[in-house]
What does this fold into?
Amino acid sequence: MSADQPRRIKLGLIGSGAQGRYLSEAAAIADAFEFVACADVRPESAEQTARECGYGSTYADHRQMLAKADVEAVIVATTHAQLQPCALAALQGGKHALVEKPMALRAAEGRELVEAARAAGVNLMVGYSLRFMPPRILMKRLLEEGVIGEVRQVMAGQCIGAMGGWLGDPAQGGGPLFYIGTHALDQILWVVGRPAERVCAEMNRAEPGGCETEAMVNIRFEGGALGQLVTSQTFGGRYGWLDVLGTAGRIRVQWESDVLTIQSTVIPEYANLTEITVPPTAYLPPPGYDARASLRSSAYIRTWANELTEFANSIREGRPPSVSGEDGVGVLEVLDAAFESARTGGMPVGR
Ligand SMILES: NC(=O)c1ccc[n+]([C@@H]2O[C@H](COP(=O)([O-])OP(=O)(O)OC[C@H]3O[C@@H](n4cnc5c(N)ncnc54)[C@H](O)[C@@H]3O)[C@@H](O)[C@H]2O)c1
It folds into this structure.
């Protein structure tokens, strides 16, 4: 950081598991933070992360960290059911917070975070990192330029293999809807850009009271646009997609692909189905990058660095972040309705 760049933001981490370490690595690339302290209920994990990522002190209790360490902003990357209480404590303590998705398990708990951030005058950002993936940044720009006209139908999916550990435990916010479905749902809401009005969902579960194994959620938006979310943990791998249909064409992007597909009836350049490849440099670590933490893969490190840069810039510029707490609540409102719709059941056929 050169002398004329703004000072670093004093950063704390709550939850030093896999994602907490990735985000710390991304924060190092964003080059806007001082690594002050990290907390995890597993002290050995906090200590390892502090050693590898450069945090100055460690805590086994996030409340101790918030009370004692000189931090201005925190990343919250705990297990799902702990995200909301940890973020609430940070916001009430006057810290800016980047909270991993899903931010809370119910919309009402999410609204408490939005209210706490407002009351403390700090920023609340939610970790919907797909918005920072290079092909999706390009997609959003093309949509805003009107290349496919008015968006009318959006289909998005995010699928994964069988989920175990805390991710298989409903009490801890497990299941594919919270873990990866929220990403796809946020993408749908981001692209449509209007409030959801009505939801109809079907879900399968391996056992009553267990996490969903497969889910499909149909959404109607104000103005009549329609969305459809697909998620699964029975899919034998990882797959994600976003298909946007407009009044003048279509755009598709796919998980782990740097190719965007477009066809437009109003832009002659895209009259035929056209593939636009995002250059690999958009993904790769910056030149001279020297990983602090032992990352297994850095495929998304630029995406998370983009996210951390936005978090830092929003704090420095005193403006709301581009992915707001309200955006996180919007996702949870649809999920609340989807769980209720699946519970109460759809219209029987042929009876
Ligand atoms: N945006 C993305 O691309 C992305 C990718 C993976 C995971 N995530 C999200 O990151 C979060 C963490 O996932 P993960 O894969 O790192 O899980 P993980 O199990 O590897 O890590 C979670 C950590 O939180 C700690 N923890 C639990 N309760 C805590 C508390 N009260 N205080 C402090 N620490 C606590 C656990 O000990 C563990 O170390 C989840 O919200 C997940 O959805 C986001």
